[in-house]
Fold this sequence. Notes:
- Among the domains are: about 70-155, no CATH class; about 160-200, no CATH class.
- It is built from 5 helices and 8 strands; from the N terminus they run H-H-E-E-H-E-H-E-H-E-E-E-E.
- The chain has helices spanning about 1-10, 15-20, 80-85, 95-100, 130-135; strands at about 30-35, 45-50, 90-95, 110-115, 140-145, 150-155, 180-185, 185-195.
- A hairpin with a 2-residue loop joins strand 7 (about 180-185) and strand 8.
Amino acid sequence: MLRGFLLVCLVGGCLYTNNRKCEQVGYPPDDELYLLDPESLFCETFLIPGCDEDCGVCEPPPEDLPSWAVCESRCFGYNEEMCLGASGCRVARYRAGYYSQLEQDPLPSFQGCYPLDTNPGAATDCHDLSAQDCSRYDYCTYLVEFESMGECIRENQIAGRCSDQVTCTTPPPSCPPDTTPGIADGCYTGSCIPTSYCGV
């Protein structure tokens, strides 16, 4: 009898044992998926149904699972220079630091390197994009401000200064209230600097 059972195990993969494990409560266990919240830039945990084909058809992932970037990414270990040149990675900056780069005592600007959303796109302009839409494009940079919603800008955009002499004939951008056109090297940069950062 024992020899017969061993033969079944060798040929059939121990079906008896597999059936018993499938009868256990909570088997197969849920899998944990770590996704990057594009606004807070912290990883959040999502549970997806566990899968063992021996126990039947596997359930599909939840339909409401966000397309956020997966937290297991090489991008997290990159410095600014590496991140700017890496495919599938994007730079995030401290908002106050970004707007102070041409000041006498600039604040730190580079906040970190992060992977792109799993549903990338091809936007024509980064401005006015939400945090998630900003995370879809490697040429868009997210300006982090943890007390309030951040801002999305084009990666190579220079902020400039709030007040400087203008020598170029290029007209200033149309800036919203409580912002002022940025100036660098005598020309408007195209950025709109929040007045709260002027003189930072």
